[in-house]
Structure formats: structure tokens, C-alpha cells
Design a protein that fits this description.
The chain is mainly α. It has one domain. About 60% of the residues lie in helices and about 0% in strands. It has 5 helices and no strands.
Amino acid sequence: MPRCNKLLFATAGHTAAELVVQRADPNSPNMSLTHWSGSRVRKHDVVIAKNYLTEDEIDTLNRLVVIFLEQAELRVKQRHDLTLDFWRQHVDGMLAFNGQAVLQNSGSVSHDNMVSIAHARYETFDDQRRAAEATEADAADLQEIEFLGKRVERQTKITAAAKPTKKTPKGKNA
């Protein structure tokens, strides 16, 4: 994850945990996520930093990943060892060479702290979403009841108008 944090920091100026804590907003549509799996935001979506990135940030991140992979392929082509130690030593240089911010520490938010914050915010978001959905369903039900009430009222008038009236014979009082 450290290399991922370095790439995210170069892209958005925050580590993954910082990014989630900064952007996860239970009062915003879809909790401020720009991407998620499925048709609606779920609890597992809110702890993935990449889900909060803008299109421009995703483009930058993808370009950095391509640079990273191209360097790896070039090293292999030149028959040089490709080790984790090499990347630990050279990832900062690659980012600096490309004019990106370089992460100097582990960030201000731990992964565990981020998960608990994001999940708590998700619970608030989900409660609000469920309440809004219930309100919408109640409004739809009320509209349907009103429609049916008017329909019954019209049908009653039609039935009453079509009913033959009882005629009394001439000369007899009712």
C-alpha cells in the first residue's frame, strides 16, 4: 500500500486514508463518491480512496501507473533485476522527475481510523437514504390513493346517473 499511497498523494495531495476522511460526506449525494460498484453506494465502496477521485485525478493516477509500469518493462527488457527494494528507492525520484508531489511520511490518518470514520459516516448516509426512500414511497402511495379515490368517485357518479329511476303509475300518489 505504500506505493499506492505515494501515487495517490502525487495525484490528489493526500494518502488513501486522508482522502477518504476528507471527502466522505454523508450529507452529499452518494456520499461524494464518484464511482462505486453496483447500482447504489454500499458500505464496502466508502473505504476505497479511488472511488472519491475526480475524472481528472483518475486520469493523472492512470498516467502515473503507466509510467511506473513502463519503467518496470524497460528494466526487465534491459535484464536488470526488478525488486521491491528498487521501487522503494526509485518511486520518489520518478514522481519528482514528473513534477508530482512526493509523500514524505505515512500521512495523518491511519487505515483503521479511516475505516471506522467512513463506516460511521456511511451509517448516517444510509439512514438518511432509507428515510428519503420511505418518504418517496409514502408520497407515491398517497398519490395512488388519491387517484383511486377520484376514480371511485367518478365511477359512483356514472353508476348513479345510469341507474333507472323508479316511476310511479299515473294518478297514484307515492
